[in-house]
Amino acid sequence: RGQAVYVMAELRPPRQYSNGSVFVKYGPDGISKTAYYPSGRMAATYERMPGGFYAYFYADTRQATTLCTFDPSGYGFVSFEDGRPHLTSQRRGGSLVNESGSIEKSWTESKPLK
Fold this sequence. Notes:
Helix content: under 10%
Number of strands: 10
Low-confidence stretches: none
Structural class: mainly beta
Strand order of the largest sheet: 1-2-3-4-5-6-7-8-9-10
Oligomer: single chain
Largest sheet: 10 strands, antiparallel
Distance between the termini: 65 Å
């Protein structure tokens, strides 16, 4: 029978604002990161997962609305601060919506932006 081997990842200490509050915490992989607003709320997360890197950005509000997210394939979205969609991106197209909710531009693989 073999012995169990435990490997402990050495985490980088968090970076801090001048007031001592956390600015960035590093994940156990040493690459993934979470950034915080001075308010202490989560601002952004950059994570390595199967297939590549994923990025998420949040509003500095109690609701922590997801403002933007993208995956390694370019799928994602950007929203207005209230959560309404502003831009969507997919492998074969996307759309840009103005604040009143009207589509300003859209594109597909067969009809790319000009």
